[in-house]
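Below is a filled-in request sheet from our internal design queue. Each sheet records the structural input a requester submitted and the sequence that came back. We keep these sheets so that new team members can see what a complete request looks like end to end.

REQUESTER: design group, bay 2
PRIORITY: normal
MODE: inverse folding
CHAIN LENGTH: 268
BACKBONE (tokenized):
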């Protein structure tokens, strides 16, 4: 295992954790960084498998709340409704992701120019939405109707195009359909748990024959880096969004997309 691969895995893991739960597309950042670092991963599996670190980070942050929900489910209709809403929101990605997995990994993940372009377009959309004078009707994720959860779930499917951002698609969709900024981000967190775990499991199964011990060690390094950096983001994101909105992330997307296109042009 070369020192360069270790360093690359560490850098990519940090990028994954720092960008997974903000609307800038962690997959785009990891793929582009991996492209310019010359990092090779069978079937681009590394980019998906290190997400387990980010999953565990959000599970740790929300552990107490998850336990409270689980304990309350037998007696609380509100708790059961919330769990059902998250599962309903997860359903579109589960079906479409399973059906389109090979196309997504072999075509979309291998097109850096597309990723950069989508980053820029997504940033523009985020700027526009952030400036809209929306009147929120939903302020608590526990009160989201099942119909709203399903629509947000379909919005999440847009993130199958790298550069779109899973959290960006779900947050923008929720905002446009009446959620406030804080609850939109929080529902995106909860929806990430089954979605990312499902993507991790499917990718691990699909690429089980291509992985070896060396790959496992590299993935473990990226996993730990993603876990630590994601913890920092999840603990602070909701307060940041409540104060500043999403414009800073929009400008970051645009800057990275432009920088990526310039880098690709200069590299031929």
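RETURNED SEQUENCE:
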């Amino acid at each position: 295992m070369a020192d360069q691969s270790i360093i690359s895995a560490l850098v990519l893991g940090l990028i994954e954790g720092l960008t997974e739960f903000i609307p800038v597309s962690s997959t785009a950042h990891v793929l582009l960084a991996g492209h310019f670092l010359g990092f090779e991963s069978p079937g681009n599996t590394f980019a998906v498998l290190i997400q387990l670190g980010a999953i565990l980070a959000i599970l740790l942050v929300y552990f107490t709340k998850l336990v409270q929900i689980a304990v309350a489910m037998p007696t609380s209709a509100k708790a059961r409704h919330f769990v059902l809403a998250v599962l309903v929101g997860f359903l579109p990605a589960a079906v479409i992701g399973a059906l389109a997995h090979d196309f997504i990994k072999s075509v979309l993940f291998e097109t850096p120019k597309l990723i950069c372009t989508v980053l820029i377009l997504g940033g523009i959309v985020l700027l526009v939405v952030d400036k809209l004078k929306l009147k929120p009707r939903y302020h608590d994720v526990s009160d989201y109707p099942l119909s709203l959860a399903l629509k947000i779930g379909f919005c999440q499917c847009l993130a199958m195009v790298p550069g779109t951002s899973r959290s960006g698609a779900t947050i923008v969709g929720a905002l446009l359909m009446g959620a406030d900024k804080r609850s939109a981000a929080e529902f995106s967190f909860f929806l990430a748990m089954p979605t990312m775990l499902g993507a991790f499991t499917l990718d691990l199964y699909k690429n089980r024959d291509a992985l070896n011990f060396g790959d496992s060690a590299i993935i473990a390094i990226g996993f730990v880096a993603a876990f630590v950096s994601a913890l920092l983001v999840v603990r602070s994101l909701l307060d940041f969004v409540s104060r500043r909105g999403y414009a800073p992330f929009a400008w970051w997307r645009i800057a990275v997309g432009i920088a990526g296109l310039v880098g690709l042009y200069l590299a031929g």
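SHEET NOTES:
- Residues 3-266 form one domain.
- The mean pLDDT is 87.
FILED BY: M.R.
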